[in-house]
Amino acid sequence: MTAMTPEHPSPHWIRARVAHHVRDLDRSTRFYGGLLALPRRGGFGGHDGYDGQFFALPGGGELELTTGPGTVGDPTEEPLVLYVGTLPEVHAAAAGLEAAGVPAVAAANPYWNRWGRTFLDPDGRAVVVAATDGRAAADLRIEPYTGDRDALWELFELAEDSPTQLASYLTAGRVLVALADQDPVGHLQLVPREEGVGNEGAMEIKNMAVRPQWQGRGVGARLVAAAVELVTAERPAATMVVATAAADVGNLRFYQRQGFRMHSIERDAFTPATGYPSVLVIDGVQLRDRVWLDREPETTR
Ligand SMILES: CC(C)(COP(=O)(O)OP(=O)(O)OC[C@H]1O[C@@H](n2cnc3c(N)ncnc32)[C@H](O)[C@@H]1OP(=O)(O)O)[C@@H](O)C(=O)NCCC(=O)NCCS
């Protein structure tokens, strides 16, 4: 294997996905999402004739279910997908594998040929080396969203574990979306905060999320920057506030990187009484307490 020589350095993997081509997408979605209770992480429809659903796997990584023109049992329809950030990184990783004599094949699903290269492991199983997406986060457009909020349910769901809570605020306030072409890949919902944390006229980021394949590339930061700009233009003296789970240390880091500071902790905010599962664990920490963060108005920073 030459993928670790100076000419072919090891790829920098950023996420992984296991794909299953299924006969009946609804039935398999009920199996993995319902019976096995894997959290759903979005989906797509009509891409080169393929429909798909994504699920989070415990410990990281995703399961992708697809239906379409392919054949169940075709190894290239059941690949292990290893992601790097960009297409040049795909080509570099592919060069290392080719130099080592690993057989390359064309995938049945054109998506994998467009964004990756498919190889066969020693037992003939397919491994796709893919780019998360060729488009840069800087090429996205951030816009106010005026369409039907139900169409964004899957994005909102990424940030809300209680369907009851989500239904109660889905249509509230205003929403900014990050669009890749016409496709919303991230969103941020802003609502006025009546009382509690924040000054008079405070604005709360009630829900925000970025599709998993777009995370970690600056989309979330751009959405927060756009929200700050909007609030500053309309209510220059308003504090911005946001709440997140104490268990989600990644989110705590994210918001602090965007200029928020910790304000207070609401213990036992996430309970069955408020619509949350009785035991939910994020990265080994039980979901229980809510952390409020706030960001001073631009004028006083
Ligand atoms: C939280 C979320 C919106 C961030 O969006 P994103 O596009 O991935 O974030 P960005 O790429 O703009 O990240 C900006 C910075 O935050 C960091 N960051 C983002 N998510 C992080 C995480 N989970 N853990 C650690 N750091 C994280 C990034 O590394 C980056 O750091 P840098 O400034 O040092 O480069 C996104 O991860 C998401 O949708 N998560 C699932 C839904 C969710 O939890 N929403 C928030 C509910 S309160």
How would you summarize this macromolecular structure in one to three sentences?
With 301 residues, the protein is α+β, with helices and mostly antiparallel strands.
How do the strands and helices of this protein lay out in sequence?
Blueprint: E1 15-21, H1 25-35, E2 40-47, E3 50-56, E4 62-67, E5 80-84, H2 87-99, E6 104-105, H3 110-115, E7 116-120, E8 126-131, E9 141-144, H4 153-157, H5 163-169, E10 174-180, E11 183-192, E12 203-210, H6 219-234, E13 240-245, H7 249-257, E14 261-266, E15 281-282, E16 285-286, E17 290-295
Parallel strand pairs: 1-4, 5-8, 12-13
Antiparallel strand pairs: 1-5, 2-3, 3-4, 6-7, 7-8, 9-10, 10-11, 11-12, 13-17, 14-17, 15-16
This protein binds coenzyme A.
| Outline | globular
Order of helices and strands: EHEEEEHEHEEEHHEEEHEHEEEE
Count of beta strands: 17
What is the residue-mean pLDDT, rounded to a whole number? 90
> Roughly what fraction of the amino acids lie in strands?
25-35%
CATH topology of the largest domain: Aminopeptidase
CATH first level of the largest domain? Alpha Beta
Helix content: 10-25%
CATH architecture call of the largest domain: 3-Layer(aba) Sandwich
Q: Please list the strands of the largest sheet in the order they lie side by side.
A: 2-3-4-1-5-8-7-6
- The CATH H-level superfamily of the largest domain is Gcn5-related N-acetyltransferase (GNAT)
End-to-end Cα distance, whole Å, is: 53 Å
Uncertain residue segments? none
Label the structural class: alpha+beta
Overall tally of structural domains: 2
Query: How many DSSP helices?
Result: 7
Q: C-alpha Rg, in Å?
A: 21 Å
